[in-house]
Every structure is written in C-alpha cells, then in structure tokens.
Design brief:
heterodimer; A: about 290 residues; alpha+beta; B: alpha/beta; globular
Chain lengths: ~290, ~220
C-alpha cells in the first residue's frame, strides 16, 4: 500500500459519500442536458436535409453558365452539397406534386427556370449562404424558407445558448459543492495535517491524498451517473419511439460514447479541481 | 559557532507577553541538555523556535550554520525531517494505529516499507509496545502514548531531538526510563538532545548540561 493510499483509507466515509453524491447528481443532470443537445443536433441534421436553398437562374441562362456557377458555388466554404435542377425536372416535380398528367399541364412552354438546390454544411449557416448567393447576377431569385427557417434557427440558437449557460452554471455549482465537501473533509482532518507538517511533509505530500480523493469521488460519481443515465435513456427512447414514431429520435448506441467520455473526463476533472481549490483555501489555516 | 545557537533572541506574543528575553545560548553537537524552568519560563517557546512553529520577534536562531529563524517556508520540511520532537501535547493522530503514528516520519522521508517495518519493530521492542502495534492510538494509556511519541521522535535517527516535558504524565520510574532512553540515544547516535522539564529530581539522575530559564531569561547555561 502506498503512503498516499494509506492516508486515503483513513478518510471519513460520510465525506466520501457526500462528495460522491454531489458529483453523481451533477453528472446526472449534465447527462440529461447532453441528451437534449444531441437530440437537437439530430434535429439539426434533419433540418439540414429538409431546408435547402433554391436559387433560380435568369431566363435563358445557358447550360455552360449553369455548370460554371455550380462549380463556383461548390467551392464556397459554407456549401455542403449542390444539385442542378433542370427546367424539365422542375416541371416533372410540379406535375408529380399536384398529381397532374403532362396533357393537363395546359402550357405550351415550360415556365420553370433551371435552378440550383444548395444545402449548407450547417443548417444555421443557411441565411448567411443565401446572402452570399444573392450577390450573383446569374440568379433571378433566391429562396430558402425565409422567416420560417430563421424562426426555427432562432429557436435552435436560443436552445443551444440557454443550454450552454445552464451547463456552465451547473459546472460552477457542482464545483462549489465538491470544494465545500472536500474543504470540510480537510478541516475535519486538521490533526493529521498538522502531524504530517510537523514531521516534515511537504505541501505536495499533504495535498496528494485530497487530490486523489477528489478525483476518485469524481470518477466514481461520474461512472455511476453514466450507468444510471444509460439505463434511463434506454427505456425513455423505447417509450418515445413507441409514442412518437415519426419524430427523429437519436439512437441509444450513439449516446454511449459522448456520455461516457464526458462523464469520465468531466467528473474526474471536476473532482480534482474541487479538491485543488479546497486545498488552496484551507492551506493557510492548517499547514504551517 | 555551535551546533545550535540563539543570538539575542526575543519573542513577544501579540498580547505583549514576553516569552523570551534576550536569549543567548550555544549548544554543541552530541550534547544532552536539560532545559529547566517553571511553567511559563519560555521552554516551549524556545523549542518552537527550533521547529519553526514560531519565529523570533528579533534575534537569530542558527542550526548547523543555517539561519533557521529566517528560513523560507518551502525549506521547513527539510528542517523538520532532521528533527525528532516529543511534543508537550503529544500530537498523535488518535484514529491511526500505533504503527502508523510511529512510521509517519519515515513515510515523509520516502523510506522503503520493508525497512520502515524493521525500524518500527526495533523501536516497539525498545519501548515495550510490540503487542500494541496495531492498536488504535486512542486506546493507549497516557504513558503508552508518551512512549509512542518518543518512538516517533527517534525512529528516523534525527540529529537533534527536542523533548518538551516528556515525563509530564508519567510516574517517576517510567519518567526515568523515558529520559534514560533519550540519554542512551544521544550517546549511541551522537545526536543532540534537549529535554525541557520542571522536575529537579529528574535532572539529578543524569550527568547532563543544565540550561535554566526564568521569565524568558537564561539564568544558567
């Protein structure tokens, strides 16, 4: 048994349980936020495939010009995918949409101009890309859903921003809790710290068990929260899929990796940082 | 310059209490010294200046040509690792076992476990505490705690041992035994030992130098 382990085993279990529980619940809430965020990302992905920019060419634009513009647009950094819709294909789409036959069309000339169907790399970049395309003279009109899309994007941004602020607040809150718990644990062990200091222990030697404590509490709290979250989301997603089958739910398997990484790394870091802050705060009082 | 030197040392506590008043003292290497004085004479303060739990209000304290009175905080562990201290209030961790309290200075020094185990065995034999090795310290009697504190002060073979009233809670036979152990240690290892006491009977039993303190002043050295 190493010296640090030896001192660690003398810790009060009540403080260990308190530290563990504070990280466990924090991580649990954090995992719910991560689930929400990933679900939002999933929706964003669906939006991305649903919302495209339609850029209609001027009348009588030659196929050479269309090809050249297509290449130019493909080279833009915001662009994910570009597809040329010919006048003929546009007409067929129209007929198909209204379940009409060619004979019922009623017009001799095809009124649909050729267009480009453009998808942005990220859905929130759609308006920016549309602005960019509006500068091109070859286009008669740019259409990307306008206000509806922007309203959806505003909601998307709001949700992400609110989620980010809440996550930050949660992180700070849990840091304060773990710091307070470890600080109480250190203060309760004042006599040990004093003895270590008087027999010549360095500050690093004295701190080390508390830093281990913080990390182990964080890690164990994080792993426990991960297990509970994964079980919970497994049943939740089953229920949601049955109740709302047409909605785009994230796969449970896709949750395992991000939740695992965040739970292990974040909770260990949180525990370590909390212990470090606690050590700094009581150092002057106990370590002479 | 002596092994341990006090030069014009004053210690005045914030309330204005003068604990040490112009102390000038020089001790040689390997000396066994009784620091005698009544309660409040300044014995504990003098010890605390050596362990650097306190710093003098003015004056200098030198140990082996190192001015410990102004030693930087980061070097304090190095100083304390070379000292063995029997504290007046013992400073044992009650929920640790006898063995754990005993080997704490060795853990700090990074001594290998097997070697630490052997040294602990020798000390426990010397102090007749072998059968209490894994007992919690809080279960020990006052005398056993005192012996344990003595063992912890000697286990890492320090070159300076400070014992602040090490016989305070002991009957006269055990007190003689404890001080005898310190005396033997000094002779065998060549360590300097300072025993603070107010017992004149104890002093008369050992051929040692006497430094007497009264109201913070050295009245005999």
């Amino acid at each position: 048994m190493s010296k640090n382990k030896e001192t660690f085993y003398h810790r009060g279990t009540s403080y260990l349980v308190m530290g563990f529980l504070s990280i466990f619940f924090t991580q649990l809430i954090l995992n719910i936020f991560i689930f929400g965020y990933l679900e939002l990302e999933q929706m964003g992905g669906v939006w991305q495939s649903s919302f495209t920019i339609q850029a209609f060419f001027q009348e009588n634009t030659s196929p050479e010009v269309i090809e050249k513009v297509e290449e130019e647009i493909e080279a833009l950094p915001l662009v994910g995918e570009v597809r040329v819709i010919s006048s003929e294909e546009a007409k067929n789409r129209f007929l198909s949409y209204f379940s009409l036959q060619e004979d019922n069309f009623g017009l001799e000339e095809n009124p649909f101009p050729p267009s480009l169907e453009i998808r942005a790399k990220r859905v929130e970049e759609l308006p920016l890309l549309a602005q960019e395309l509006e500068k091109k003279e070859e286009f008669e009109e740019i259409f990307y859903g306008g206000e509806n899309t922007e309203a959806l994007l505003r909601f998307y941004h709001f949700f992400l921003a609110a989620g980010g602020i809440l996550l930050l607040a949660l992180f700070v809150f849990s840091l304060l809790v773990i710091t307070a718990v470890i600080k109480a644990s250190i203060q309760a062990r004042g006599i040990e710290i004093e003895v270590w200091s008087l027999v010549g222990a360095t500050k690093r030697f004295i701190r080390m068990p508390f830093l281990y404590q913080g990390m182990i509490e964080g890690l164990s709290g994080g792993v426990a929260a991960l297990v509970v979250s994964l079980i919970f989301f497994h049943f939740l997603l089953d229920f949601l899929r049955t109740s709302f089958p047409f909605f785009f739910w994230i796969d449970w398997e896709d949750l395992v990796f991000p939740l695992g990484v965040v739970s292990v790394l974040m909770s260990s870091f949180l525990g370590f940082l909390g212990a470090l802050l606690a050590c700094n705060s009581v150092e002057e009082e106990n370590i002479k | 310059m002596g092994f341990l030197e006090f030069k014009r040392v004053y210690k005045i506590y914030p309330a204005g209490i003068k604990a040490l008043d112009n102390v000038n003292l020089s001790l040689g290497k390997g000396e066994f010294v009784f620091l005698w004085g009544a309660t409040g004479a300044g014995k504990t303060t003098l010890m605390k200046l050596i362990t650097r739990e306190e710093v003098p209000t003015s004056g200098e304290v030198w140990l082996e040509r190192c001015k410990i009175s102004s030693l930087e905080e980061r070097y304090l562990p190095l100083l304390r690792r070379n000292l063995g201290v029997v504290f007046q209030d013992l400073k044992l961790v009650p929920h640790w076992t006898v063995y754990e309290n005993l080997i704490s200075p060795l853990l700090v020094l990074g001594v290998k476990r097997r070697y630490a185990h052997r040294l602990a065995g020798e000390i426990l034999d010397l102090l007749h505490l072998q059968d209490k090795k894994y007992h919690k310290t809080e279960w020990l009697s006052g005398g056993e705690k005192q012996k344990l504190c003595l063992g912890r002060a000697l286990i890492h073979r320090p070159y300076l041992v400070l014992a602040d009233e090490p016989t305070g809670n002991l009957d006269s036979a055990t007190a003689l035994d404890v001080v005898g152990t310190l005396f033997e240690f000094s002779k065998k290892s060549g360590a300097t030992v300072i025993v603070a006491t107010h017992s004149e009977d104890l002093i008369s039993n050992f051929p040692a130098r006497l430094v007497a303190l009264d109201k913070g002043k050295v009245i005999q050295s």
